[in-house]
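Justification of resources, computational component.

The compute hours requested in this renewal are based largely on the per-chain cost of generating structure records like the one below. Each record pairs the submitted sequence with a full C-alpha cell output. That output is archived, and it is also reused by downstream analysis tasks.
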Amino acid sequence: MSQPTFRRLGRAAYVACGASVSAVVLIVLWLATVLARSPRRALTLQRAAARCLLGCLGCRFAVHRAQPPAGAAACVFVANHTSYLDIPLLLAALKRDFVFVTKRELLDWPFVSRITRGGGHIPVDRDSVESRGAAVARIVKTLRAGRSVLIFPEGTFSDDGGLRPFQLGAFKSALAAGVPIMPVAMDGVARLWSQHAPFPRPGRVEIWIGEALDLAPGKDEVAQLECLRAAALQFISAHLGGS
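The structure output for this chain reads:
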C-alpha cells in the first residue's frame, strides 16, 4: 500500500483494514501449520504467510549482499531487534531453512503458540537460568541436525532503535556446534512499527546480511566468544541509520 493510499484511507481505516487482514493471515497460517507434516514444511508455509502479510501492510524490504547457497551448512543468524515486525521480515527475507528463538510468553498467545511449536521454533524464558540453558542445548541440537537458528542477541526490543548489549547465548551455541555466525542488520523497522504504535504503517526496510564469521583458530573459548560478539556488533551497528 502506497503512502498516498495510506493518507486517503486515513489512519483509523488503515488500522481496521490491516487488523482484519492480519487476523485472516494468522488464522490461515495456524491452519496451515496444523496440517503441515514437518517443521520444514511449516516453515515454508510460514514464509509465504509472512510475505503475504507484509504485502498487505505495505511493508517493503530490500536485502543487500549475497546470501550463502541454499545447500550451505547451518549457521547462527544474529540480528538487531526493534519490533514484532522483525520476525515476519526475516521469515520473508532469509532464504534458508531456519528456526528462531523467541520469548516463552508467545506460547500463551492463541494461534501463535501452535505456529511456534509447529515450525520447531525455540521458546525461552529470559528470566530463568534453567530455561536459557535448555534453550542453548536445543539450539545446538538443531544446528547439528542441519537447521540454522535465528537469535536476537539483545534479548528484547531496544527502546530507541539503537542496540542493547549483546548477550553471549547465540555465540556460545555457535561455538558448541562448530558453526559460523552470520550477522543481519535491519534498518528502518522502528519507523514502520515502533513499540508505542498500535499498528505498523507502510514503508521500506533495508536488510543487510554479512559474511559468515568463523571461529578464530588458536584462541581459547572466552576470546573466541568476545571476537564473535564484537564482530557481529560492529557489522550490525555500521548498517543502522537511526532506525
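The beta strands are 59-64, 76-79, 98-103, 122-124, 148-151, 181-187, 203-209. The chain is about 45% helix and 15% strand.
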